[in-house]
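Worked example

This section walks through a single chain of length 72. The input is the sequence exactly as stored; nothing has been trimmed or padded.
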Amino acid sequence: MKKTFKLQDLDCANCAAKLERTVQQVEGVLSATVSFMTQKLTIEIADENFDAVWKEVKKKAKKVNRDVTIIE
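Given that input, the structure is written out below as tokens.
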């Protein structure tokens, strides 16, 4: 399942790259991109694991940058 989420308070391109790398490393994430220009996260996760993997993605993202909020 591929979904796009709005990011709030993403301040710099370096922070976006760091967030993207972190999300891509979460087990179960098939692909992930973070766009600083559009302030969006596009993520692809297998349908059967979506909820569990998405929970882990949000947890890791918060650790990397506490200021950024993923708007669902």
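What to look for: The mean pLDDT is 96.
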